[in-house]
């Protein structure tokens, strides 16, 4: 090869090498430029909080909560408290229920009987997930939230993190019933039109990993367990709890939620609550929660009132008939809560053998019967500019507050409060269609004050049919139908529909 040709080849090679190097450098530079710096926690929360709550949840209005676990074996609580806190009440002498729970436990099971000894008795041998799902569907509920894991840390699904951090079998698949309770109920519920959600406790009272150091617990247990639960079951709702010991940064809540909304298999439909860190309720997350209260005033942020049928979430054998809210009370709670823009999550506490107690089944059935007639005025509705119509007297809303406050909805809507007004009517809407729901029917005429119906509007009573009416100034006056008890379309509350208002 002559020197001139060799020189040309060298020049071509060097030019090619230069172009390749330039291209690689440009690609690396572009990659660095486009690579996003990890968002700060504040930025993550801004993105999380700006995510709209999926419309399906806003339209659903009514859901079923389920508290079920080893605490369902003793099913004991001081009346007025929570049976699912049995273990904590048993060992924590500072708890107000400690004396009652310890006396019961020592007398019935013995001082040497540990909480973990309840697990073999949590057999769920009568659990029929399809029957449960049928009851939920017939109740009119549009979503279910099952305790996948409560504060005792016992998982109702196969969680390797649980077994590892507890150092023993602590899941329903390898102890107790030997069944994937979350999976079985999820599959059954998804055969219906009801959405399936999961409750998940961030903290675990006596988990050795949690007690030895929360940071390690979060990294090795909480975060991977949370992701495993979501990946397995793709819940439509995640109701977290047990957040109050540490701020959200300690729990890495923003990190988990960023993953949930960006990468998880249920990222588009999943709904979350607001219990993600100490002091963050009604500040961060998704819908706001109240517990054994009356919910919140109508506002921009979606909210949900959750409570048991009696005083406890978990089944408690100490609760008697008079401790349970009547079907009328529960229907009126649903009506009043929805009229103010909220959802109602009503809890059941199944037994350790896997049954929904008959009294709870009856309450669900009664609510379903009412919704069969009146569901049009509940599902998919929005608030009217006036949520209710008051009678004469001082207007006082009951149950202001977020936790354990009085909510005597029957008196609120039916009267018997000396000198105080009652809610004669509560309103819901769908576009220009107005629904007026009454807990007491007037004998002759129902006057809806400040309501202007269109000239071609029709007025009807759901379950009955069209009624006579007239516009009298600013009010709609409806002539009551003649109904004897055998022809009443439903019990507890009645709905009047104005097809078009101005």
Automatic annotation (TrEMBL):
Q: Give the domain of life.
A: Bacteria
List the GO cellular component terms: lysosome
Q: Name one Pfam family in it.
A: Alpha_L_fucos
The UniProt GO MF terms for this protein read: alpha-L-fucosidase activity
Instruction: For this UniProt record, give its keywords in alphabetical order, as a comma-separated list.
Output: Glycosidase, Hydrolase, Signal
Q: Which InterPro entries match?
A: FUC_metazoa-typ (IPR016286), Fucosidase_C (IPR031919), GH (IPR017853), Glyco_hydro_29 (IPR000933), Glyco_hydro_29_N (IPR057739), Glyco_hydro_b (IPR013780)
* Limits of the Alpha-L-fucosidase C-terminal domain: 423-498
Q: Where is the Glycoside hydrolase family 29 N-terminal domain?
A: 31-376
Identify its protein family. Belongs to the glycosyl hydrolase 29 family.
Q: What is the name of this protein?
A: alpha-L-fucosidase
Q: Which source organism does the UniProt entry give? A: Novipirellula herctigrandis
